[in-house]
């Protein structure tokens, strides 16, 4: 097509302006998580409460007593800020914090079982998305994996029989993202703890999500709490800061003081430690846990997980007309019952009743897939991308995590035709 000179110039200038803008803008941008997975690892897991954000800004913009003891005027310990509160909540003697739970597991293994054997059930050789696999982590920590039992059944006598002079650690890994059902047996924390005491070998439990409170009070399924695991006798427990805790990315290690001291003295600890901004956020979130009655209203992760269906239906009623109208002639939009999941591997089989926008493209037979992909791309190309999920030939936007309804509706006009 012939293009007139002024048209060409205008188009050219627009392209240049766009390219310059792109140079100065961040590639890390907020999105609407309408996937139905609340704690979505690829979408950054938990959103933080306002208190945590304030603390992060203060820590980021000021000098702080991060590792400075104000009383003695000497060097302090960055773990000291968190240790008391975490110990009070979990019943542990001591605690330390690192970059994430993968780092926590690596550090514990490397500290307590360097060049030694770690005994673990074949039913617990977990792979978490993104290449965290127990056998590989063992190797990276310079430990020898000593797998025992079978995939479905492992007994206390299997652990006992595997213990030898090279054993460094007994380990249990929470099978957070799968479940073995049917003819099964696994050994409880209390039994393993007894065996470990008898043999003088530490017992570590990697909880993965690790909740600080019993989630059943929010009508959510049971997930073992850190306190339960400590009470059952685990010497050390590792868990994530940004899964069911609802805080920033971090890995928390709690347990016996003597073992925590060893962990802290490992030179790797320095490489895996958290910065002041993460610490500030984690402290603020832990503080929120001191007031359990208001937990649900103050922790965004929990508010989303426990959001009542009636609240989600209200959101659906507010958005259905506008989305329908915007997609008129292109797709059919209905409100449908759907199921959300907790995410990040926690309780994969326990789904939560929810409501979603179900978008079915009006395409000729054989072109539905193509139309679906284009539609989903158009929503992902919005200024604040909308991420849903495709299933059964439809695009589904689970509305459980939609809070900013005005922001969602306000950008629909930018939806590509
Ligand atoms: C999620 C998980 C990890 C890894 O934790 P990150 O916070 O992702 O580093 C390790 N172990 C288990 C059992 C987990 O569920």
Element layout with pairings:
Blueprint (H helix, E strand, L loop, with lengths): L4 H20 L7 E2 L3 E3 L10 H12 L6 E2 L4 E2 L4 H11 L3 E5 L2 H12 L4 E5 L5 E2 L3 E2 H7 L3 E5 L7 H7 L4 E7 L15 H11 L3 E6 L17 H6 L4 E5 L10 E5 L1 H9 L1 H6 L3 H14 L5 H4 L1 H6 L3 H18 L4 E13 L2 E16 L6 H13 L5 E2 L1 E3 L2 E5 L6 H6 L7
Parallel strand pairs: 1-16, 2-14, 6-9, 6-10, 10-11, 11-12
Antiparallel strand pairs: 3-4, 5-13, 7-8, 12-13, 14-15, 15-18, 17-18
Explain this structure.
The chain has 417 residues and is of the alpha/beta class. It folds into 2 domains: 14-46 and 303-414, Aspartate Aminotransferase, domain 1, CATH 3.90.1150.180; 50-294, 3-Layer(aba) Sandwich (Aspartate Aminotransferase, domain 2), CATH 3.40.640. It contains 16 helices and 18 strands. The chain has helices spanning 5-24, 50-61, 80-90, 101-112, 134-140, 156-162, 189-199, 226-231, 257-265, 267-272, 276-289, 295-298, 300-305, 309-326, 368-380, 405-410, and strands at 32-33, 37-39, 68-69, 74-75, 94-98, 117-121, 127-128, 132-133, 144-148, 167-173, 203-208, 236-240, 251-255, 331-343, 346-361, 386-387, 389-391, 394-398. The strands form 5 sheets. It has a 7-stranded mixed β-sheet with strand order 5-13-12-11-10-6-9, with helices on both faces. It has a 5-stranded mixed β-sheet with strand order 2-14-15-18-17. It has a two-stranded parallel sheet with strand order 1-16. The relative contact order is 0.15. The structure holds pyridoxal-5'-phosphate. The site of pyridoxal-5'-phosphate has 17 residues, from helix 4 and strand 11.
């Amino acid at each position: 097509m012939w293009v007139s000179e002024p048209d060409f110039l205008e188009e050219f200038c627009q392209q240049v302006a766009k390219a310059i803008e792109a140079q100065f803008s961040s590639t890390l941008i907020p999105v609407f998580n309408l996937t139905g997975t609340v704690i979505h690892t690829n979408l950054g897991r938990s959103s933080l409460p306002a208190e945590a954000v304030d603390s992060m800004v203060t820590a980021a913009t000021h000098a702080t007593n991060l590792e400075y003891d104000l009383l003695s005027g000497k060097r302090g310990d960055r773990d000291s800020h968190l240790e008391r509160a975490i110990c009070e909540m979990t019943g542990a003697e001591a605690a330390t914090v690192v970059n994430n739970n993968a780092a926590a597991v690596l550090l514990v293994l490397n500290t307590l079982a360097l060049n030694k054997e770690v005994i673990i059930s074949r039913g617990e050789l977990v792979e978490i998305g993104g290449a965290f696999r127990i056998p590989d982590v063992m190797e990276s920590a310079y430990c020898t994996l000593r797998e025992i039992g079978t995939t479905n059944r492992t007994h206390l006598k299997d652990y006992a029989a595997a213990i030898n002079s090279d054993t460094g650690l007994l380990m249990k890994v929470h099978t957070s993202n799968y479940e073995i059902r049917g003819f099964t047996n696994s050994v409880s924390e209390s039994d393993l703890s007894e065996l470990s005491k008898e043999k003088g070998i530490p017992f570590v439990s990697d909880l993965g999500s690790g909740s600080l409170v019993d989630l059943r009070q929010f009508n959510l399924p049971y997930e073992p709490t850190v306190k339960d695991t400590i009470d059952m006798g685990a010497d050390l427990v590792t868990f994530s800061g940004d899964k069911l805790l609802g805080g920033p990315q971090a890995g928390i290690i709690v347990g016996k003081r003597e073992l925590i001291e060893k962990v802290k003295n490992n030179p790797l600890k320095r490489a895996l430690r958290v910065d002041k901004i993460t610490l500030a956020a984690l402290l603020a979130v832990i503080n929120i846990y001191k007031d359990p009655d208001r937990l649900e209203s103050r922790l965004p992760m929990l508010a989303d997980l426990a959001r009542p269906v009636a609240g989600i239906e209200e959101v659906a009623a507010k958005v259905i007309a506008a989305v329908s109208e915007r997609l008129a002639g292109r797709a059919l939009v209905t409100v449908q019952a759907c199921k959300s999941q907790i995410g990040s591997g926690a309780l994969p089989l326990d789904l939560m009743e929810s409501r979603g926008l179900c978008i079915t493209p009006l395409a000729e037979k054989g072109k539905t897939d193509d139309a679906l992909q284009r539609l989903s791309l158009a929503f992902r190309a919005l200024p604040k991308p909308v991420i849903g999920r495709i299933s059964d030939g439809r695009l589904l936007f689970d509305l459980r995590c939609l809070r900013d309804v005005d922001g969602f509706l306000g950008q629909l006009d930018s939806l590509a035709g």
